[in-house]
């Protein structure tokens, strides 16, 4: 566990197996790096593959982040560009994303910058 004192706010970061909890402002945020396999997108007709890949991202994130009924999922535009970069017929086989949960906000899915 790493603790940093910034003014009157203590930032705490603990990392275990790609799972991190940190303070962003006054709210506790849960952050996970996830590799999402998109193989199910290749089991549909060619013209539906990118759309199915986006649906697979929502399914995978809701399963692994234990989404509740009242939470929404917000997918960043960069993830959308990565899926559609080679057209609708050839989405990537897998994609690495960062998922963030904050109290009172939807689950955020952003592309992992490597």
Task: Give a quick rundown of the structure.
The protein is α+β, with helices and mostly antiparallel strands and 114 residues long. It is 21% helix and 41% strand.
Tell me what you see in this structure.
The protein is of the alpha+beta class. Helices cover 21% and strands 41% of the residues. It is built from 2 helices and 7 strands; from the N terminus they run ββββαβαββ. Strands 1-2-3-4-6-7-5 form a 7-stranded mixed sheet. Strand 2 (9-16) and strand 3 form a beta hairpin. The longest helix is centred in the middle third of the chain and has 16 residues, at 49-64.
Task: Give the SSE layout.
Blueprint: E1 2-6, E2 9-16, E3 19-24, E4 27-37, H1 49-64, E5 73-75, H2 77-84, E6 94-102, E7 107-111
Parallel strand pairs: 5-7
Antiparallel strand pairs: 1-2, 2-3, 3-4, 4-6, 6-7
* Mean pLDDT level: 83
Question: How would you sum up the major sheet?
Answer: 7 strands, mixed
Mind telling me which CATH architecture of one domain this is? Answer: Roll
Number of strands: 7
CATH topology of one domain: Ribosomal Protein L31e, Chain: W
List the secondary-structure elements in sequence, H or E: EEEEHEHEE
The order of strands across the largest sheet is 1-2-3-4-6-7-5
Strand content: 35-45%
Assign the CATH class of one domain. Answer: Alpha Beta
* Unreliable spans: 1-17
Structural class category: alpha+beta
CATH homology-level superfamily of one domain = Ribosomal protein L31
Radius of gyration: 16 Å
First-last Cα distance? 23 Å
Number of helices: 2
Overall shape: globular
Helix content: 10-25%
